Amino acid sequence: MRTPPVILAIDAFLEYVSATPSWEASSHRRGTGTFTIHIQEFECSMKIGRIYLMELRYGVQVCPAMCTLSAGSNLTQRTGSPEKIDLVVTLGGDGTILHASSLFSAGAVPPVLSFSMGTLGFLLPFHIDDFDKALESVFSGKATILNRMRLACTFYDKELAKKGKDGDGEDRLVLSLDIFPEFSPDWQVMNEIALHRGSSPHLNTIDIFVDGQHLTEAVSDGLIVSTPTGSTAYSLSAGGPIVHPSLSALVLTPICPRSLSFRPLVFPSSSIITLRIGDRSRAPAGISMDGRSSHTLHPGESVVVQASPYPVPCINRSSIITSTDVENMRQSEGAGPGKEDDWVRDINNLLQYNATFRSKALLRHSRT
Questions:
Q1: Under the GO molecular function aspect, what terms does this record hold (predicted)?
Q2: pLDDT tens track for 35-57
């Protein structure tokens, strides 16, 4: 939803881009003197968004068509391959970045530059007030990238036939991607996939297989398989570990397990995790991926989760180190210029990691 602050931010962003010589030079090097901007607008209560290819000021190249993008469909089917998209800019919160990731569900994701509009989040390295520094860093080729791992999820019915999802949200078999190219069986997930009992009062019984080997039968409210990026989201609330996002790993976290010895596990990214709803399960399992409801798995049905070959390249805040910052860092302890870790800053500032009661009190006092 475009509120007045977002509209002002977009307007300032476009004005800066059009007036930046480095961007114009890079456009001519690619053989084009103009560029195209796609703005996606959503109604908060709707599942269907519209992409408006709008004629804006500042000499932006205009695509005259207005197309509709269903939730879960692939942006590359509408605008071409992701290689033709130079940069994705998000304004908002962590959910905006997760949605941007979902738009590229069939392949590679362009670099993502994320701006906070006043909210706190682990995926928001830049505040909107710093957009000029961030854009200058990107246009001049100084940006540093953190490839955030994604998960590829494939669903199967009792007969091990792949299941897809059509535009109406109904599950269906995917017999051939040549016949139904829009029903890709793989879902790309940036944070986590969660199996849960939903509104059922009964626990789920889920068989867990790792690389084809039976690990255990889980009796719980559900299970979470998360990426390192997602380890500070739902998984953390369920008691999972915090994993650095530069690692490639799969985190398996139970949700309120019946057994007290069922602890979270971390697997290498080469592992393939299969979660199968047990035949004795008294409840189906609802599926939530990055906060979006999708399938419902019944006894005998399963989902296979593995590392996706297409991570999300996120631009780091360390990209906008200035000469003043360099001089200040040389006179202090810590990481060298451009080497500081956004993640370390975030777990201290956002999570208040290992903060004592005294340090929290001092922090509250400093804010008054």
A1: ATP binding; NAD+ kinase activity
A2: 555 555 433 322 223 333 333 33
